[in-house]
Design a protein that fits this description.
The relative contact order is 0.07. The protein is about 55% helix and about 5% strand. It is mainly α. The termini are far apart. The longest helix is centred in the last third of the chain and has 21 residues, at about 100-120. The chain has a two-stranded antiparallel sheet with strand order 1-2. It is built from eight helices and two strands. The model has no long low-confidence stretch (mean pLDDT about 90).
Length: about 140
């Protein structure tokens, strides 16, 4: 036999079961389970949760840290938006009414005015009759 055929026949043991069990025991996804490639033969022998727990204790199976999900780009865009960037005509999806309903604007304005009327009434700047008429 040539060297290549020898290599082809000598397959590495599948560690799918072990990885699945380990991910369940470690409480994370398959992606975060690290199986020591140098201990593949030992790991392939483990076929129970008990044996997987032992391998975890020995450090042959490790839970990798969570990948970094940086918010720096988001923060930078937010600062730019505070300056009025990225908000032009081409970026807008909804109609003007959908983005800022005129009803909301009206309600806001009315509440402010009515609050002012209440304040004036308590300060006796206007009497109750005028307050009722304007409210």
């Amino acid at each position: 036999h040539s060297f290549c055929t020898l290599l082809r026949h000598r397959k590495m043991a599948s560690l799918k079961l072990q990885a699945r069990l380990a991910s369940d025991i470690l409480g994370c996804g398959r992606k975060r389970v690290w199986l020591d490639p140098n201990e593949a033969s030992d790991i392939s022998q483990a076929n129970s949760r008990k044996s997987i727990r032992k391998l975890i204790k020995d450090g042959f199976i490790i839970r990798k840290p969570v990948n970094v999900h940086s918010r720096s780009r988001w923060r930078k865009t937010k600062e730019a938006k505070a300056l009025g960037r990225h908000e032009g005509r081409g970026r807008r999806e909804g109609t003007r009414e959908a983005r800022m309903p005129s009803k909301d604007i009206w309600m806001r304005r009315l509440r402010i005015l009515r609050r002012m009327l209440r304040k004036y009434r308590t300060e006796k700047k206007i009497d109750a009759h005028l307050y009722r008429e304007l409210y």
